Task: inverse folding
């Protein structure tokens, strides 16, 4: 401690006693109350904060032994707060014991003037014995405060580009005696590596506080507990058994094959679900990596920027995660560079000097919605069009027919940003067009909204997984199409006379009755022919009325309900979806393709795009 | 030399006292204002012109970064420093992005004097 004169030191010591004793009293009452209501979070937080104060006070006064003891107690409370541990009587007893020691030492200090040779190592060991996570992996409470709201820690360095950061280095890897973490060279191909590790703990590992950086989360390898691996093996074994059964029964009693076949199908389904679970990973690590990006950019551009992150726990397929890392980074960069104004300009406009970028992730109807919102200068659609014309991105006729959304989206076109701008913006030699391309690759869509002077929002929707999609197969004009189950509300079928009673022509589009309400009826064949509702309502009505059946898939995207008219409803199927080849990437209403049992190809419809297309 | 004003925001009364003593001993030409939490600090800032703010991170109500942001709105030119024991890398970046500095706990006259020399220079 800094040396004050005797009188000052005495005054400080008095203050130390008075404040710390008060806090210790509150901690004691709090712990006793927690024994009655262990789930009282507010109380737990208050107890934690008081322990934090006591620790800080001990440090200020130079009582390092007391500091070490209260630090351990604080760590334990922090783990309780995080739900890593349950508040049990034994936890409570250890903490109450700490209080007694601290108070006893205080009394001693009051007489002798210092803490002397008090030895708390026994108690510290007892505290550590209660820890859910070994102490060296814990961060201090001070920093943890931050994590509670913004979540799991990631890599401190730029995660975006450097593949070296993709090696598994989670704290679990260090804790469990894992060969891959101690000798990564032994496994040259990490992408094919399945680490035998605590997979059940993958999620907790990600959300755990990790000491000041240095721990990254594996992106290209999956950590699996031996128990989980055994369970998978068992399922595969059962599959093998039913396969043999199937072979036998087909030979001997072919008429009874159906039962075994069904069992076989069920097993495959369970296995699919299980494997899919391992592919999902919280998006937090990726989002958190932009904190550094924003900080660096803010400094180079001499702006003040605050990045707020929410929805870190949202789970996304690893493959999707890997492909969106970079494109999200571009959007964040763009927000700092083009969105947020300099502090001087902001103050002039009556805004706070610190610009705000909000990055959020959310799961909605089986899709992931990502939003990058800034409170910067916004995008002037008129200026965008002008620039696009100058740069030859669009022709004059095209410019006239663009909707507001299309005008804003011009910034994503190749050729919109010039080379000089690009290097200044991203420093990576690419413009916003790569965002569009990367997005299309994962079957995602982008919406831009912006208000000049108030800021812009980039809203991305991406599929949660690219692997297996539960879908409904329908036909239209001889082709088979798949509609993602997540978008389907219900199915309606009308026959003969019912048809006329349940459809109506309204405004520009036919409408179909769904119980008490009328919803827009959009014929799939019209969309496939690239026609909007247009002036066709009358003709479409006539055609539909002339049929003997009408099949409607009621779809929902965002808040819109919408009927899709199809020729036939075939039935549900779990499809292994392959992304569309880049040659077809401009056909945004299709988000992928799947090979059907008979060898033909069906296309997965992108419901949001269908609705957008038909409503524009 | 014109008198300057600093603000210490900390929920620990001992911590505030410590800073008060340091200022009384080593920076006699400074006026020190005190606040026990974020809201208190915002009240103090109203109507006072500050040169330096030393802000604890872990406080009830708003934390140090949230307070720093609000202080900046009120006094854009104010030099703000977070006083923390363990600076977590991400927290540091977040604050640096906003133009906020750091002092590692425990606070002492030398650390304060370093910040002041930057202020004056």
Result:
């Amino acid at each position: 401690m800094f040396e004050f004169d005797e009188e000052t030191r005495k005054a400080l010591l008095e203050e130390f006693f008075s404040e710390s004793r008060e806090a210790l009293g509150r901690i004691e009452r709090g712990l006793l109350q927690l024994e009655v209501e262990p789930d009282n979070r507010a109380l737990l937080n208050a107890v934690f904060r008081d322990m934090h104060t006591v620790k800080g006070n001990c440090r200020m006064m130079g009582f390092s032994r007391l500091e070490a003891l209260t630090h351990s107690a604080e760590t334990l409370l922090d783990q309780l707060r995080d739900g890593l541990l349950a508040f049990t009587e034994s936890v409570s007893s250890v903490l109450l014991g700490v209080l007694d020691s601290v108070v006893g030492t205080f009394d001693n200090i009051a007489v002798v003037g210092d803490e002397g040779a008090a030895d708390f190592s026994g108690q510290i060991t007892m505290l550590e014995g209660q820890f859910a996570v070994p102490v060296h992996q814990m961060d201090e409470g001070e920093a943890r405060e931050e994590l509670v709201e913004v979540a799991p820690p990631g890599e401190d360095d730029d995660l975006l580009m450097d593949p070296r950061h993709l090696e598994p280095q989670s704290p679990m890897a260090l804790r469990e005696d894992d060969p891959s973490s101690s000798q990564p060279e032994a496994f040259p191909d990490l992408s094919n590596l399945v680490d035998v590790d605590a997979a059940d703990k993958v999620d907790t590992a990600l959300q755990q506080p990790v000491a000041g950086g240095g721990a990254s989360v594996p992106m290209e390898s999956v950590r699996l507990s031996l128990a989980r691996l055994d369970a998978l093996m068992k399922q595969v074994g059962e599959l093998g058994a039913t396969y043999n059964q199937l072979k036998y029964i087909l030979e001997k009693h072919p008429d009874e094959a159906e039962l075994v076949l069904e069992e076989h199908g069920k097993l495959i389904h369970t296995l699919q679900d299980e494997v899919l679970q391992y592919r999902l990973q919280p998006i937090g690590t990726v989002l958190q990596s932009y904190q550094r990006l924003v900080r660096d950019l803010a400094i180079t551009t001499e702006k003040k920027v605050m990045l707020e992150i929410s929805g870190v726990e949202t789970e996304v397929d690893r493959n999707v995660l890997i492909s969106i890392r970079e494109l999200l980074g571009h959007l964040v960069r763009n927000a700092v560079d083009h969105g947020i104004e300099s502090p001087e300009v902001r103050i002039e406009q009556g805004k706070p000097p610190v610009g705000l970028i909000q990055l959020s992730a959310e799961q909605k109807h089986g899709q992931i919605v990502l939003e990058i919102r800034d409170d910067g200068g916004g995008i002037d659609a008129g200026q965008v069009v002008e620039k696009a014309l100058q740069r030859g991105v669009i022709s004059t006729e095209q410019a006239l027919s663009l909707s507001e959304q299309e005008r804003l989206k011009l910034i994503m076109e190749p050729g919109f940003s010039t080379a000089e701008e690009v290097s200044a913006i991203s420093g990576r030699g690419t413009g916003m067009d790569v965002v569009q391309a990367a997005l299309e690759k994962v079957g995602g869509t982008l919406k831009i909204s912006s208000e000049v002077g108030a800021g812009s929002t980039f809203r991305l929707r991406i599929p949660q997984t690219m692997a297996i999609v539960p879908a409904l197969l329908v036909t239209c004009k001889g082709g088979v199409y798949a509609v993602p189950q997540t978008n389907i509300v219900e199915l309606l079928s009308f026959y003969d006379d019912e048809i006329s009673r349940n459809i109506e022509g309204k405004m520009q589009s036919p409408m179909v009755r769904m119980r008490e309400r009328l919803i827009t009826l959009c014929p799939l064949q019209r969309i496939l022919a690239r026609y909007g509702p247009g002036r066709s309502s009358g003709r479409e009505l006539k055609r539909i009325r002339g049929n003997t059946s009408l099949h409607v898939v009621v779809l929902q995207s965002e808040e819109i309900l919408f009927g899709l008219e199809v020729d036939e409803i075939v039935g549900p199927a779990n499809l292994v979806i392959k992304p569309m080849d880049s040659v077809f990437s401009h056909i945004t209403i299709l988000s992928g393709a799947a090979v059907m049992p008979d060898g033909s190809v069906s296309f997965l419809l992108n419901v949001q795009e269908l609705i957008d297309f038909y409503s524009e | 030399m014109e008198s300057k004003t600093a603000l210490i925001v900390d929920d620990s009364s001992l911590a505030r006292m410590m800073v008060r003593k340091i200022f009384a001993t080593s920076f006699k030409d400074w006026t020190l204002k005190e606040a026990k939490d974020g809201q208190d600090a915002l009240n103090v800032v109203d109507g006072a012109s500050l040169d330096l703010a030393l802000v604890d991170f872990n406080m009830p109500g708003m934390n140090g970064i949230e307070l720093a942001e609000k202080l900046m709105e009120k006094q854009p030119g104010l030099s703000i420093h977070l006083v923390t024991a363990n600076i977590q890398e991400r927290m540091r970046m977040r604050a640096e992005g906003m133009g906020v500095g750091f002092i590692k706990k425990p606070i002492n006259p030398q650390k304060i004097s370093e910040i002041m020399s930057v202020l004056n220079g």
Observations:
- DSSP finds 24 helices and 20 strands in chain A.
- Residues 7 and 257 of chain A are 94 Å apart (CA to CA).
